[in-house]
Amino acid sequence: MNTPLIEFRDVYRSYGQGETEFYAVENINFTINRGEFVVILGQSGAGKSTVLNMLGGIDQPTKGSLIIDGDDISGYNEDQMEDYRGRKIGFIFQFYNLLTGLSAYENVAIANEIVHLPFNADEMLQAVGLSKKKGKFPAQLSGGEQQRVSIARALAKDPEIILGDELTGALDANTGKDVLKLVINICKENNKTLIIVTHNAAIAECADKVIHMRNAKIKEIKINENPLPVERLDL
Ligand SMILES: Nc1ncnc2c1ncn2[C@@H]1O[C@H](COP(=O)(O)OP(=O)(O)OP(=O)(O)O)[C@@H](O)[C@H]1O
Ligand SMILES: [Mg+2]
After folding, report:
1. Measured from the CB, is residue 54 less than 6 Å from ligand 1?
2. Percent of the chain, pLDDT > 90?
3. Residue 112: per-residue pLDDT
4. Pairing state between β 209-214 and 37-41
5. Does the C-beta of 45 come closer than 6 Å to ligand 1?
6. Structure confidence by residue, pLDDT tens digits, 104-143
7. Using CB atoms within 10 A as the burial measure, which of 11, 87, 135, 204 is most buried?
8. Which ligand gives the minimal distance to the CA of 43?
């Protein structure tokens, strides 16, 4: 049988102690296969970012196991977490998180210096349609262009897992749609596992799997046998 790339087993994340303790997420169980496109849906405060951040190695469960590619990362120390993030994860943030003092090219090339790279920065900027603007600084780029740089940066180190938390949240609807199509297509073409958090239920039609969260728990997991081709997505 095909072993999943990602497995959450009875994962809890709490904040506070004693009487003030509350669970940001509780009893989270799901699996994700290599190459899958997964959408995490749910209202504000449902626990979506908490799940994504644990997956991205920037937060850890209070309880439970998080198995990635056969390893339980829930007990990793800081050094192991850093190594995990560097090797396995490409994170695309809502507000891009580009380094303002570096050009588009340098923002992508910086991933080069961290790990051994199969792609070069020029190729990645070409893949997101920004070859002509590679010398520009973030302040000289539109929101959609900045997000495309951050997608190129996330992909440049060839991680197995790409994560996006409201990655189109700061963009207008049309630009958001283009950016989303771009990232979904690049991930499919390169067999990357893509997991995005969104408020937008329409995007879920294109996903292989939809994880619906409510009040810190998983309400429903839906598998789309025939996901909508992203070209037909109408946001
Ligand atoms: N660092 C923290 N300290 C305390 N509580 C937190 C912390 N981070 C998140 N929470 C709480 O955990 C719950 C889940 O938060 P989370 O950010 O995962 O929600 P979300 O589904 O991503 O919401 P949104 O759609 O608004 O981004 C919320 O009640 C939030 O207030
Ligand atoms: Mg969130």
Report:
1. no
2. 66
3. 62
4. parallel
5. yes
6. 999 998 876 655 556 688 888 988 889 999 999 999 999 9
7. 11
8. 1
